[in-house]
Amino acid sequence: METCGLIQQWLISSQTEVKPSLLAQILLDITRDPTSILSVTNILSTQEYDARKCVDLLAQVTIHSRSTLHEDAVDTLVDFVCQRLDQPLVVTRCLDMMKSLIEDDRIKETNALRIYECMINHLPQQKLHQDARYKTLIIIDKFLHSHVNALQQQTRFDFVRGFITLIDGEKDPRNLLIAFELVRDVIAKFDISSYIEDLFDFVFCYFPITFKPPPNDPYQITTEDLKNSLRQCLASTPYFANFATPLLIDKLLTSTGSAKKDTMETIGLCAPAYGAHALLPHAQSIFDVLAKEVYNASSVTMENTALKTIHQVVATLASGICVADIRVPVEKAIRSLLDPCITQLKHPESKNAKSAGYILRSAASAADPACACVVHTIIPMLTGLLSADDSAIRRKAIMDIFIEILKGNNTLYGSLDEVVKDDASRMDDDTVSPLAAYKQEILVAFMSALSSNDEHLRLSGIKGIRLMVVIRRFLLPDEFENAIQQLIHIFLTYKENQTSRMALTTLVTVCKVDSSSIEDHVLPVLLDRLSSGETNDMILDDFSYALEAIDALSFQPQIARVIIPSLMEKLGANLSNQENTDFHYARCLTRSILSAIRATSKDPQMIQMAQERVFPCLLLQSVKAALRLPDAWRLDKDLINLWALILAIIQRGSSASYQQGVIGDAFKVFVFGDLSVVPLPSVQEKSEPLLLIPATTPNFDISVLFSAVAGNCKKEVEAPVSSCPELITDLALSATKQNFIFSQQLAIARLIGSVANKCKNVQMPGSIKALVTNHLIPMIKNTTTPETTRKASIFLMSWLAKALLIKGHSLGFELLDSLLQQLQSPDDLGAEAAESFIVILHDDDLVLTKAAFANISILYKQRVFYYCKSVLIQGAESSSEVIKINHLVAFSHIITNIPTQIITNEIQKLVPSIIASLLVITNPPPLLSLIRVIQTVIPDATKTILLSSFSINDNIMEQLVLALLGLTKGYRMDVRIASLRCLRWFALHPITKKELRFLAPLVTKHLATALDDKKRQVRKEAVSCREKW
């Protein structure tokens, strides 16, 4: 055989590495004839050749031909590897062969067992390298997952004993993680009763484990990973209890710092596994140490760890109460935890009394017997200490202990406002909380606190009431009502006060569990605070606080269905009063209606109510106002825009059939001028289309309502016109030729964009291209055309581009090219084209979004960015200042409206343009957006920027900082504040703080102007910024 000759030649040569051509030839022969591997193995089994070369070659052959190995070949390979596993020089490659063989599911059980037997016979005597030990553990893991039945049934060797010898003495962190996991597997799958002490010795010798990860650790192993895995090993079997418990107690008594924390966490995890019998003899010692840690906590973390451990230990002990022979000792053990707490509570104002409250909460939340013991012992004592003549500080301290016990009760039994993770601990239908026996005393104490003049005592009272109202079947209806009335009184009485905030959040909690009570007792009070609208009979604070509460409570559909009609009634009364010229109250009412509808838009009953009570009313009144009818409501542009959002949300939540009917009526009114569908008896049925009547003021322009209705229909809803392409063309020509105000232009553009995006007519792209080519572009290029018409054409083209780009249509990029070319215009049209990029990438509130059922292509913003990036960066280097500004404005709009990850990936190329934008743009909105992007992206990318290929003399980060410093003077106040906050963040972020330290003198020098700013808020930010630098 030619291949055999090649193998022999290589074996006697001085080469140590396997030649790729030789390996390829052997594998080719095996593919053609699988039995040829037997010949290869026979040659390599010869004693005269270098064992390392033989094993290396056969290992590579085995690994690459595993799928073609037949049964005889596997037998031969197992013989080969088992005969050589005792040779230290080849053991690693032997393990590679074993790993490859054992991973093949076709391997016979006898061969698998032989491999394991060989491992336990030969490997423990050798000092293996870390990599070899890792491979050994991986092979054992494969055994435990694929051959566990064979291992359990065989009698040839002692698997568990061999396993212990194989893993003993391991120190490598990666291997330890695997070893700990294997220990848990062996404990779960094998009888370890004869090897408990040996296994425990292996595990506990690492406790408490310490590990400092090396820099740039490829395995990313942390100390917590090792601690958690070791802890799980110790808690994996109750057999460890007798060995582990006294040692853990000793560690608890003698250790400090992280070792003590580790010990507490380990006891907490092991307690349920070891059981009450194991913990009972040591309960007093455990509680003494843990309670001392709570009383004298060195940190919040240590205190919380001690409290969690107390919880687990008490829960474990309480589980032993049902065992007759240890019932009394268990009760005594729990009492031993409570007795020191009772001593501390005799002085409730002391710090230790507060800590005792935490201990009582942990104990009460552990188990029903413990909770009963805490309640029946502590509550009578506290009520005996409480007196109405006591100081507010003392009363508050007692209230806080009540609160901790209530928290423990609610954690154990569950509450109405939280999902209880452990269903077994949830209060059964016939279970009564032990607190029920003392309900009146606790409730009276909390209600008394609510009426106190001390704010802190009131806060404690509110917290207690909140915890009581969520206990199931606890408060009677009249008690519940009284508590709610007190809360709403506090909310409306103590305005701009922490107790007011807490009262409102408690009412929100009550609303979650009992909306009917809020409807009956809270809403009438809040609505009484709102004006009837006919006169200015209210105080600003009254209605603003009432509406704030309404907004917070209207997330519940039941509340929203009640409150919206009332708000609509008050809105109508206010807007019907023609003598009232102020719109602030009406806007606030409208925002509350919008908030309620938005929060409950998924509720079918809510949407139905809005369809019947809100939608037709707003449309009718808006049409009346547009026609200047005498009984029309007063309107302004802000109200109209809010109404548009309301109509859009109702439309989105409606069925396609409802939308089809609504859009039919809307087209009749706004496009065809048919008023017959509107109940207006004093008006002719035919008029000019409301969409196309040029408005003289935004206060009477209701076109945005039509775009809200038409632009939020589902894709299956069809516009009631003969041809959508013709509709777009007609509307576009009307918008460019008539002298419309901006709000009308925007409404028509939104409508055109929505139709272009959703229309299924195959002629639509061609019609849009013809419209742009034959009408819009010629009007833009014709210098004799009025400037307003040219700007309107650019505006419409940007919306068409947005609609098509979102959809992923190639025509959108053609329109984008036209807008990019227009940036070269030195007149105002170039600036208009630059502003169009915010239209293209900014998510509109009303249309062309996923919520508005638009056709959206994923990553469209990224595609636009990469398509425009090079053109804009080149344009920013133009010699013409105007053209340069146009490109930079467009650039700023793009990067402030794309995901920050894209900017991070391209940061080296974008920073110069960002700096240039900061230097030339004067309009505050894009500047503020740019500063936000810089604050988000630059800190994490600073190293990349500093190491980039910029010129050595061109310190790009220094230029960026100087540009931000330039914005701290001479610009609008919000720009000055934003730039100062950005600079302050540079001084706080760990990367920029280190990398930009050399700029500190420069920054502090340039902040002198901001420190003398006329505005106090700017000076305050400047002082904070300078302090951090």
TrEMBL record:
InterPro entries per UniProt: ARM-like, ARM-type_fold, MMS19, MMS19_C, MMS19_N
Compartmental location: Nucleus
Keyword terms of this UniProt record: DNA damage, DNA repair, Nucleus, Repeat
Segments forming domain MMS19 C-terminal: 547-985
GO BP field: DNA repair; iron-sulfur cluster assembly; protein maturation
Domain (MMS19 N-terminal): residue spans on this chain: 45-296
Family indicated by similarity: Belongs to the MET18/MMS19 family.
Protein name, entry field: MMS19 nucleotide excision repair protein
Species of provenance: Phascolomyces articulosus
